[in-house]
Amino acid sequence: MAPYIYKMLLINPNSSEEMTENLEPLITEYPSNTIIDSFTAPRSAPKSINNEKDALESANIVFPEILQFIKQQKYDGYLVACYSLHPLVDMIREAVPRGVYVTGIFEASITTALTLTPTPHLKADVKQKTTFGIVTTGTAWEKLLAAGVLRVVGLGEMAHATRFKGVESTGLNADELHTAPKEVVTTKMKDATKRLVRDNDVRVICLGCAGMSGLDRIVTEALIEELGEKDAKEVYVLDGVKAGIGMLENMFRSLPGSKTEWGLE
């Protein structure tokens, strides 16, 4: 019997075709046997999701479209490519049957970052990189993403996540990452990165926007400039889209209710 070929839908919940096109090279270059299709929200959706209101509006517009795919049993997994606790993730999660998996790039990014970040050493004289942080777009996301991290790891808003360094923003909207002058994007990305790592305690930097896919080189350059090559090499730069694809593929192959369990692979 031929192996079952899994199918995944990568959802851009804003209406920017340019952002979806920016993700295409990542999809084609990703070492995967999964068929990955992409979807862009209708034109009535916000072109850039800059706050919770935009996220809810886009979710309400996109969900009916995705529901048709769910009814057709077209995909084994859905990845929402918006770096936030986007309501579309749970809307789809509640609609799919057992064995179809859903995640957002924010959740996938934070979960992966935690697996890469060591538990702080008890000895005060031991210097370690024991935190992860986020470089994101507009300043409005700083508090929203920080609160989102606590929710993902199951902590209340008043809790303090000792392995979470925080969020630094570029001041650019998602669509400006690829429309603003290159030198402006580079400067703002580097400045945010350097603020995040200046204490040299960060192990993982999460790219806090789907539109940052492909900009990891700028973050790496900033790390070298701020920390030097030796310490910069110890820091992971994590793309949430790649993390999300990998997480769903792991679910396909390992969780109960998957095609493997039913002997289809």
From TrEMBL:
<protein>
    <recommendedName>
        <fullName>Hydantoin racemase</fullName>
    </recommendedName>
</protein>
<dbReference type="InterPro" id="IPR015942">
    <property type="entry name" value="Asp/Glu/hydantoin_racemase"/>
</dbReference>
<dbReference type="GO" id="GO:0047661">
    <property type="term" value="F:amino-acid racemase activity"/>
</dbReference>
<dbReference type="InterPro" id="IPR053714">
    <property type="entry name" value="Iso_Racemase_Enz_sf"/>
</dbReference>
<dbReference type="InterPro" id="IPR052186">
    <property type="entry name" value="Hydantoin_racemase-like"/>
</dbReference>
<dbReference type="Pfam" id="PF01177">
    <property type="entry name" value="Asp_Glu_race"/>
</dbReference>
<comment type="similarity">
    <text>Belongs to the HyuE racemase family.</text>
</comment>
